[in-house]
């Protein structure tokens, strides 16, 4: 049996996919699957279903939803005892399934392998692992589930994780000299995330390396306008230093090596970049 939460919450056996029809039973299943092979307490499940106003019958209702899930498991896996798959623990419930059968855990395995390869400077291997992770995580998670506070928090965590994988994968691609190949993707990501400095930094660098310096500076101006207008913030020091380097056509921008051309905050004498109080740079 395969478990899917990155997309629709589904239990899959062969070509057959099953999910509970009752919204709250599906909600319980989703929280158990996101935490597959870990106990989820009854308190957390009740809080997910009814927030801070559970009915007096909350515990018995939860037990009914668990019974419905076990009935579904009995139909899917007739040769197994459903109580060995959806296990009652002293404080809650645990859905036990081999990690390789859970799409979220396969995603995590590729994500961690990609991160380790990237940190070791093995960019080709990192790109392959990150691409495999993103292939698994190709749809909005828990798409067919009504969500309470705990599932909402899980979605935020998962989406942040996916964005992080995209950003680090593109960083590895840039270090491989693939600025032309990632340019279109970066343009879309910067448009979808108008205040994400990481994607804008990568887009500026890719544009510059493609010989499009005016467009790279325009990206910075648009980001700064969005940050100042909506949040009252200036771009980060790293972004300001990149903008200055593009203005001066710093030759260190042309290399795809990982060695940063900017000082880090840990350096003893960080470069101070004054910022005019008036309008942003014009290009």
From TrEMBL:
Residues 1-97 form the OmpR/PhoB-type domain. Pfam families: BTAD (PF03704), Trans_reg_C (PF00486). InterPro entries: AfsR-DnrI-RedD_regulator (IPR051677), BTAD (IPR005158), OmpR/PhoB-type_DNA-bd (IPR001867), Sig_transdc_resp-reg_C-effctor (IPR016032), TPR-like_helical_dom_sf (IPR011990), WH-like_DNA-bd_sf (IPR036388). It comes from the Bacteria. Keywords: DNA-binding, Transcription, Transcription regulation, Two-component regulatory system. The keyword Transcription regulation applies. Residues 1-97 bind DNA. The keyword Membrane does not apply. CDD domains: BTAD. Belongs to the AfsR/DnrI/RedD regulatory family. This is OmpR/PhoB-type domain-containing protein. It comes from Streptomyces prasinosporus.
């Amino acid at each position: 049996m395969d478990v899917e939460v990155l997309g629709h919450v589904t239990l899959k056996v062969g070509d057959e996919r099953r999910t509970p029809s009752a919204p709250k039973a599906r909600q319980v299943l989703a929280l158990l699957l996101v935490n597959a092979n870990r106990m989820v307490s009854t308190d957390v499940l009740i809080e997910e279903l009814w927030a801070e106003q559970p009915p007096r019958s909350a515990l018995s209702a939860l037990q009914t939803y668990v019974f419905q899930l076990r009935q579904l498991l009995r139909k899917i896996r007739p040769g197994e005892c459903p109580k060995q798959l959806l296990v009652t623990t002293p404080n809650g419930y645990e859905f036990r399934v081999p990690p390789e059968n859970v799409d979220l855990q396969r995603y995590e395995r590729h994500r961690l392998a990609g991160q380790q390869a990237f940190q070791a400077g093995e960019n080709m291997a990192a790109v392959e692992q990150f691409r495999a992770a993103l292939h698994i995580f190709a749809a909005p998670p828990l798409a067919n589930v009504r969500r309470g506070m705990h599932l909402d928090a899980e979605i935020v965590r998962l989406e942040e994780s996916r964005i992080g994988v995209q950003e680090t994968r593109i960083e590895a691609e840039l270090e491989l000299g693939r600025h032309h190949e990632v340019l279109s993707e970066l343009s879309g990501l910067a448009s979808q995330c108008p205040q994400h400095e990481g994607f804008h930094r990568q887009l500026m660098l890719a544009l510059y390396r493609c010989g499009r310096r005016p467009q790279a500076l325009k990206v910075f101006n648009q980001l700064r306008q969005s940050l100042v207008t909506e949040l009252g913030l200036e771009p980060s020091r790293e972004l300001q230093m990149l903008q200055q380097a593009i203005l001066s056509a710093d030759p260190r921008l042309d290399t795809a090596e990982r060695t940063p051309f900017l000082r880090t905050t840990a350096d003893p004498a960080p470069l101070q970049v004054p910022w005019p109080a008036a309008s942003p740079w014009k290009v």
